[in-house]
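One such given next:
>
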Amino acid sequence: MAADSLPQMDGDGRPGTGARGVLRFITCGSVDDGKSTLIGRLLYDSKLLFDDQLKILARDSQKHGTTGDDMDFALLLDGLEAEREQGITIDVAYRFFNTEKRKFVVADTPGHEQYTRNMATGASTADLAIILVDSRKGLLPQTRRHTYIVNMMGIRHIVLAVNKMDLVEYSAARFHTIVADYFAIAQSLGFASITPIPIAARHGDNIFTRSAKTPWHQGPTLLEHLESVDAEDAQIRQHPFRFPVQWVNRPNLDFRGFCGVVAAGKVAAGDDVVVAQSGIPAKVAKVVTADADLDEASAGAAVTILLDREVDIARGDILVDPKARPEVANQFAAELLWMAEEELLPGRSYFLRAGGQFTPATVTSLKHKLNVNTFEKEPGKSLALNEIGVCNLQTTRPIAFDPYDSLRETGSFILIDRFTNQTVAAGMIQFGLRRASNIHQQAVDVTKAQRSAAKGQKPAVLWFTGLSGAGKSTIANIVDRKLSDLGFHAYTLDGDNMRYGLNRDLGFTDVDRVENIRRIGEVAKLFIDSGLLVTCSFISPFRSERQSVRELLEPDEFIEIFVDAPIELCIERDPKGLYKKARAGEIKNFTGFDSPYERPEAPELRIDVTQTTPDEAADLVLAMLRERGRIR
């Protein structure tokens, strides 16, 4: 999900390889809990630093008045000193070190709440999380948040590192109080192990060697635990075979291989497989790497699979065990971590990426939000930055998935903003919705083409958008009348009229506006199927919602008409008195005042109402319909 930027290690990079396998872990905690100091100490004590790094460390530590074992090891990780002095740490940095027993990849993530995105990115590929707690402050809201997120992201092993024990005189009572408080909040989350360790990262207490200052601590040092913890996921080994296709390799007509990493189970020549999305069966002819043919490949192995015959497979398809196929559905429930400044709006269309699968998707409903301070469910209509909720989603085309609790490689996804291309959410699929498999499209005998031919026209949605008072309804009404006078079949959907009936339960918040346009788009699609020309007059302030309606229809069926009027003119007209009420504070979320209007970037037709009368504008619309072949 979020591993694209992770550097590659020797071997397959998963637990179970080498003496104890590669252990990927994440450090997280609140600001100034000592994450950078801890990682710096691990790098320093592992003897992996170069001479120039040691010289820089000594120089900068001396500048800060620290020397010897009291050196400031955070300087190894922090970038510009000015950034460090401001307390700014904004990137996920992957660090590498190793001992004789094991190799390690550690994700250093910031503690600031606004960078939860980075913390989730690091957690998405980790096997273990080190939750740091300042012994003076105890548990903080960020401790709860990070604990829930690492559990949500599938991490099963926790190290509770109670840091800065030197500042509480290595108090056993203080340590045990913090541990008891932490177990009280974490015990319900079902971690496989929680290992508390008292440390002083600055001085190295209980990091590599046992500290004489904590004789009361009978547990392991941090390194002892990291070297010995068995983070290998037996569930992945025992899970049925899953192989997401990352690339189709066809250098010539005699070779067609499917490249990727085995996500679960194992595969060998002669095994029966099936393409999860299409159900097409095949048999594995060979499993190869760049160096050799393999007898068998297990979870984590990067291989190329050759099949015994030509099969239509593309990037994003998943080869699976035919006896234990994943779900394939276009509706499912998922837990979402929202990571964007702009809130989640149910009904808005986003891009969903699940491995190589890519499709438009909509959050159809928010079932509940999670209070990360109490882990209780709360009602809500949207998600703000860093909030977590359980949602129902619908995709444009079915995707193949396993529940995240079963296999996170095929149960995770991200949502991407369609216009900024920014990742806005990380998602964990819980289960497919029953209605996704119980509801089927009913075939009908009379087609849209037949209905259109009978009317002597081609259907189209004429979508009039613009500010309140711009003249959308006036122009649309004239267009409707002129089409009727010419003998064509048309119908008008108007914003106010729709809110008297179908949408009378909706208000004017951003969430309700999105749902308003979603419903109208579905109604307009039905009119298109009946062969009608449909005029739609709606402010429809958001580009993404107008684009969503466009995508419901066939190419050229959606015609966006921007009725462009300066807000000063709209205020001057104010036919409904709405601008006056908005200025007086009597109307909230009014477009143009406290709710934005996103102008169309490339409408099919722009009408400048300062230069064109409503009747002239209607003639322009009819001329465009003739030019596009929608009417004779």
Observations:
- The radius of gyration is 30 Å.
- The chain has four domains: 22-231, 241-320, 327-435, 448-627.
- Residues 241-320 form a domain with the Elongation Factor Tu (Ef-tu); domain 3 fold (CATH 2.40.30.10).
- DSSP finds 18 helices and 27 strands in the chain.
